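Inverse folding, one chain.
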């Protein structure tokens, strides 16, 4: 198999959808690119955010739960999610986040200066500078993420031997990997195994890896199956096709095709401005439009 080149999207569980929208749009400057429902639990929104340049590998998506089922961070989850900003922007972001009364900590988590902070629902985030300067400070995509593995050796084997990520130097208690595509997404996995987490508000549900098309997706399905992983059938997510597996450290890995893309059912310029439903739920539109909280667009 050809190596996995980049992250496709990361999906987390958060609280109130308007608080979620306000944070990612107004504080981080991302763009709401799709309002739909969770295809597996359609009474809940599924909100997708990207950057303003349609950069592939920037999509962070949320299931905003309106109950108060807080999650517990731990193994079987993706941990801190890092965004990348242009070279020379870290000072700007430190000030920007501090002005919003967020607690910001400067660490070396990703092997270089890393601003760690939490979103409005306790989801762990970070900002790291990339190597390219720009004429603004806008987020240009993911820098990478932490994986909370129950079996760091097993996770490492899948990432390097099967998925083709490059292993970088071990720093402290962490494995450090890098995807081989031009985005060079960084994956950190702590070497001591983590205690089990529980999904809920403030936790990440899964990470999706980008594959070019359906043929390659099916080849990954075979490869994972032959390597002893349980893997789902191909699921139609409308904007992409997906398979899911639970890796050896219990983190949910999705493999998702790059196409057909988010402009499948709305114009590129009006992405995210209206509730979009897949065919199978269109007949229940009225019900969802009544029950889902109105978004302050
Ligand atoms: Zn997904």
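Residues assigned per position:
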């Amino acid at each position: 198999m050809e190596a996995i080149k980049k992250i496709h999207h990361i999906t987390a569980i958060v609280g109130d959808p308007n608080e979620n929208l306000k944070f990612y749009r107004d504080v981080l400057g991302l763009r709401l690119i799709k309002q739909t429902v969770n295809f597996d639990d359609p009474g809940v929104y599924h909100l997708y955010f990207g950057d303003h340049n349609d950069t592939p590998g920037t999509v962070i998506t949320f299931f905003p739960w309106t109950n108060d089922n807080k999650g517990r961070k731990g193994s079987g989850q993706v941990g801190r999610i890092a965004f990348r900003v242009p070279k020379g922007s870290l000072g700007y972001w430190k000030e920007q986040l501090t002005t919003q009364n967020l607690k910001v900590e400067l660490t070396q988590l990703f092997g270089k200066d890393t601003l760690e902070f939490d979103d409005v629902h306790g989801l762990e985030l970070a900002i790291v500078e990339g190597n390219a300067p720009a004429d603004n400070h806008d987020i240009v995509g993911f820098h990478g993420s932490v994986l909370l593995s129950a079996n760091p050796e097993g996770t490492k084997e899948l990432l390097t031997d099967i998925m083709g990520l490059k292993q970088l130097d071990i720093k402290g208690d962490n494995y450090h990997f890098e995807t081989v595509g031009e985005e060079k997404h960084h994956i950190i996995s702590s070497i001591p195994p983590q205690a089990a987490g529980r999904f809920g508000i403030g936790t990440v549900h899964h990470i999706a890896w980008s594959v070019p098309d359906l043929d390659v997706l099916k080849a990954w399905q075979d490869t994972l199956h032959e390597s002893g992983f349980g893997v789902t059938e191909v699921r139609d997510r409308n904007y992409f096709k997906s398979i899911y597996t639970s890796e050896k450290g219990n983190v949910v890995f999705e493999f998702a095709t790059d196409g057909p893309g988010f402009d499948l059912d709305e114009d590129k310029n009006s992405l995210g401005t209206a509730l979009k439903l897949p065919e199978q739920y269109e007949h229940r539109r009225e019900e969802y439009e009544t029950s889902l909280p109105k978004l302050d667009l």
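Residues 9, 11, 206, 208, 254 surround zinc ion (CB under 6 Å). The longest strand covers residues 41-50.
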